[in-house]
What does this fold into?
Amino acid sequence: MNREKVQIFDTTLRDGEQVPGCKLDTKQKLVIAERLDNMGVDIIEAGFPISSPGDFLSVTEISKVVKNATVCGLTRAVKKDIDVAAEALKLAKKPRIHTGIGTSDSHIIHKLNTTREDIIERAKAAVAHAKSYVEDVEFYAEDAGRTDNAFLAQVCEEVIKSGATVLNIPDTTGYCLPEEYGAKIKYLKENVKGIDNVTISCHCHNDLGMATANSISGAINGARQIECTINGIGERAGNTALEEVVMIFKQHPDLNLYTDIDTKQLNEMSRLVSESMGMMVQPNKAIVGANAFAHSSGIHQDGVIKNRATYEIIDPADVGVNESSIVLTARSGRAALAYRAKKVGYELTKTQLDVVYVEFLKFADMKKEVLDDDIHLIIAASKIEGDLIKR
Ligand code: KIV
Ligand code: ZN
It folds into this structure.
């Protein structure tokens, strides 16, 4: 079976930047956009041009520097938004306007105070207007996750007729279960005329911790674009994490799906975004967290020292991490102590290791983590200095 490409649409600079307190200036956004482009992202959502003069400027400047990726600007289904986005994108090599409107009953009744018929008319008009500026128009059906499938299919069919090239099916509130979200994509594939001529996109939020699972389920069921952010940042509990979906496709060739992301850049990219936004990455974050390749229990350490693959499914080098780390704590065993002692210059015999290990445990019970400097102290306290082979 032929492998198919899933396009990576990065929205770190738009949905990601909606995190309170994490606003970036244009200079910071330019640095991130150039790095995303270099890493192989297919589409960069650079901002929401009508939202502020600063965002307009960012989209304009990003459009000038991005070499390979499509540059995308967000709009509501409002004529003025689209005019402003088109203006901001006019120097982009590959511009895309991303327009849309709420389609769930909750949005139609409570937010927009209108009818389904009116939503269809506004969606069609927005897509047609965007199409008068650019060839590539993406339509989002906001809150598609909670939209009735038959109505969603009707909206999709109409916007395809108006010229949409990409259909974004956002689970805006992070409500769907993976099976349910996958079934929604399958339903659209089977019930929307013209769907095979457009790309279906997954845009999932993480309110129930299922953004990545939902996006993968969408791709398994026919979506060929995933919208995501570095470190999974975004509104509330965040968006699908780019590094997670990319590594899932890499680690599961059985899915027959791939991306063009240079995975070796993932770790550095994560740091750049975290530092620019002043937003720490949780240590246990998949792929890019500080502990993603750290082993601290004795049983695991022994296994990893013998063969990395016993407790690691990803080679750290594949995501730009130098090596796995063996963290010394009171839960560590002799194998880990010998390994770390060797790294700081001590080749311990089995008898020496037994003596040093007793001292190590006393020390480790007093500290959360035993560091390289502590190893020297522990060895000195073990009083075997004279017989030691020091490399
Ligand atoms: O979550 C969402 O529905 C969005 C749209 C604006 C695409 O971010
Ligand atoms: Zn979103």
